[in-house]
Design a protein that fits this description.
Elements: E1 9-15, E2 19-26, E3 29-30, E4 35-38, H1 44-62, E5 69-73, E6 78-79, E7 84-85, E8 98-99, H2 100-108, E9 112-115, H3 117-128, H4 130-140, E10 150-155, E11 159-165, E12 168-169, H5 199-209, H6 218-225, H7 233-255, E13 262-265, H8 272-283, E14 286-288, E15 294-296, E16 301-304, H9 308-315, E17 319-323, E18 330-334, E19 338-343, H10 348-363
Parallel strand pairs: 1-5, 5-9, 10-13, 13-19, 16-19
Antiparallel strand pairs: 1-2, 2-3, 2-4, 6-7, 7-8, 10-11, 11-12, 14-15, 17-18
Helix pairs in contact: 3-4, 3-10, 5-7, 6-7, 7-8
């Protein structure tokens, strides 16, 4: 499916706790000036009416064209399959189950698709960003291999995840897959991973080492770590490296079950030149058996494709002829399992938006209105 040739229009929403940003996509691109409205997240009736009025404004902007669907990310917990939103930490008015999807279908008479932002971020990368680029480069290098799966993580206020298997979002039986934020924190095992992989984690670790630094942002701490701003460089590096290890172990646990490339997005991913080498080092590290035998942490070798030399090494794949017993024939196989990890080429917001757009277009034929 080529998203950039599809002329159907989908209305979208970027749902934040403070503001809602409404827009519309056609041929994989935004076609109106986004409409920004306060979310009114503390008042359920106002919040729902804001969502309706926002999409009505978009609909009016599109005239005489008509959208074919509504598709967007909304925070969980939720029953995304049925469009039911659960008790949201940042939307205090959402309690007891809110039938947001069915409400919009009844108001607009349009198929409405709601998903987790981590899933849509990953889906956008699988359909139009990260994954197609890797497969294109493999093909150009003469490698007969195609990756069909993708795991995505977002690093920012929280630690989000998403999973695409064989080109489809994997939601799980309870719309609760890819909740990587609930992994055990490798550095502080009594805590969730998100306490070590977030904006607040970087600030907390730096502030523990440096007095009177609570006013600094993660970007400030990154600049200090790079030697571009005055401050305690060692403490700044330790803050980001500590986060790298928590990310690395969380991904290691995920990748023992999910075999595929990893794409990274979110605001903190801007510190990737510090984070990624340590993440890769952890993933390519070792673990021990009870007898003390050291074995690789993962079955597959991981490559940082943001590093040019590593990307070249990833593309330089080794093949070997294996003799078929009792015959003169042989089979040519790839002798090393490989996982590429890198940053979203679309940007996090655009990947989420494209993911929502693509999901709607692909799902339309099987969807029945509420």
């Amino acid at each position: 499916m080529n998203l950039y040739n599809d002329k159907r229009i989908v209305m979208t929403l970027d749902a934040g706790g403070t503001n809602f940003v409404f827009s519309a996509l056609q041929c994989g691109k935004e076609i109106i000036t986004p409409i920004i409205l306060p979310s009114n997240s503390s008042d359920l009736e106002k919040c729902l009416k804001t969502i309706i009025s926002g999409f009505k404004e978009v609909q009016n902007e599109l005239l005489p064209e008509s959208p074919v669907a509504i598709s967007f990310a909304f925070p969980g917990p939720a029953d995304y399959e049925n469009g039911i939103i659960g008790d949201l930490p940042n939307f205090k008015s959402f309690r007891g189950g809110v039938a947001l999807g069915p409400m919009l279908e009844n108001v607009f008479n349009l198929p409405t698709f709601i998903n987790n932002d981590g899933d849509l971020f990953t889906y956008g990368g699988a359909m139009a960003g990260f994954l197609p680029e890797i497969n294109k480069n493999l093909k150009n290098a003469g490698i007969q291999k195609e990756y069909r799966n993708l795991f995505g993580i977002t690093l920012g206020t929280g630690f989000g995840g998403g999973m695409v298997i064989n080109g489809k979002i994997f939601k799980g039986d309870n719309s609760a897959s890819s909740e990587i934020w609930l992994m055990r924190n490798f550095k502080e095992p009594n805590l969730i991973a998100e306490e070590g992989v977030s904006i607040r984690a970087v600030k907390r670790w730096y502030c523990e080492k440096v007095e009177n630094s609570t006013h600094l942002s993660p970007e400030d701490i990154f600049l200090i770590a790079k030697g571009l701003k005055d401050g305690n460089q060692d403490a700044a590096l330790q803050a980001y490296e500590r986060m790298s290890v928590v990310i690395g172990e969380s991904l290691a646990n995920a990748l023992t079950l999910f075999d595929g490339p990893v794409v990274i997005g979110g605001g903190i991913s801007g510190a990737s030149d510090i984070l990624l080498p340590k993440i890769i080092e952890h993933l390519n590290g070792e673990i021990e058996t009870r007898t003390g035998e050291k074995i690789p942490r993962l079955v597959s070798k991981v490559f940082n494709i943001e590093n040019k030399s590593e990307y070249c090494a990833f593309l330089d794949q080794k093949f070997q002829n294996i003799q078929i017993p009792f015959t003169q024939k042989s089979v040519n196989i790839n002798t090393e399992k490989r996982i590429p990890i890198g940053l979203s080429k679309l940007g996090t917001s655009e990947a989420v938006c494209l993911g929502a757009y693509a999901f709607a277009l692909i799902s339309l034929k099987n969807h029945k209105l509420a």
